[in-house]
């Protein structure tokens, strides 16, 4: 440890979701959904192509929710939540995490308690319009494409986030460090299709598909993951 990802690419769409529905979905973790405005939380759908890393090459799809740091409980305000988002004090709960590699599935579940399951991917991270779909047992989970965004300053700047996971009745937190280059982002720009898989039905219950708040592509992403610690 830490586990290093030397080269990956990613794209994501961030959505506004009802706080009550999202909280009901993640109550099993003991964590609290962060609110960026009253009654609304943030859910991100993320596709990652891991090219060179300690866990080998593989594809991944994540359903994540922005959550309050586990040390901040009871009565946190929207103002405090926005401050946490701006200063890196918020966390990301990895709620669903299909992958297409057996080794990374076993390592992710065993080391960090990430809820990795095997699935099938069809992804294009290289074209101007990024797109990917993920299915399991012949059932489509999601198909997502995002249009090109505007280049953002600060390329290559390190950032850190607390990643939360829950498996076998235990909620854990892991230090997640990132170094993204070539980041592009825009308001909206996503085309999301939901399939018939149970994960797709969870997203429907959150009001998706709807217009994305923001979409982002990262053609060059380096990451490290530290040890997982139980809450």
TrEMBL record:
Q: Which Pfam family name is an example for this entry?
A: ADC
Q: Where are the transmembrane segments?
A: none
Q: Which GO terms describe its molecular function?
A: lyase activity
Under SUPFAM superfamilies, the record lists: Acetoacetate decarboxylase-like (SSF160104)
Name of protein: Acetoacetate decarboxylase
Which organism is the protein's source? Answer: Rhodococcus spelaei
